[in-house]
Amino acid sequence: MVRDRTLLQVQEHEQPIMWKVKFSSGNSSQLSNQCRNSVQGKLLITDELGYICERKDLLVNGCCNVHVPSTKLYSCDSCLPNGCCSIYEFCVSCCLQPSKQHLLERFLNRAAMAFQNLFMAVEDHFELCLAKCRTSSQSVQHENTYRDPTAKHCYGEYPPELLPV
Question: What Rg value do the Cα atoms of the chain yield, rounded?
């Protein structure tokens, strides 16, 4: 069955997001399991388990190789306390921390209907973090300038602070 992946797809409001990924932590080096990952990064990739690694350390199953010292779990290296990060892959990895679940649930419960249509199309914690960390109209001011040019990928509840005019 092919699922319609349009952004305006709305799920039942009662259907909760599935927060638990079906793998147990640390199995990302087993080739029998497949991982979804952030795909787009030239240098860095984040897998759905929350690991961030260099693209060259991505296994054929789509998971980061956890046996490489530079691979990190739930890394917030480029992120500010407000949940905005300068690097997309760090934003996704940081957002995937189990401790962020409450913050994300609060965001979904308060989201305006337009955003709810967008974010209710996601099926789990990983997809929500991918969507939240993408730059959006909430990351810009005056329609063409980033609110914070160095930390424009945000998973937090609030957009970046407005820059002084």
Answer: 16
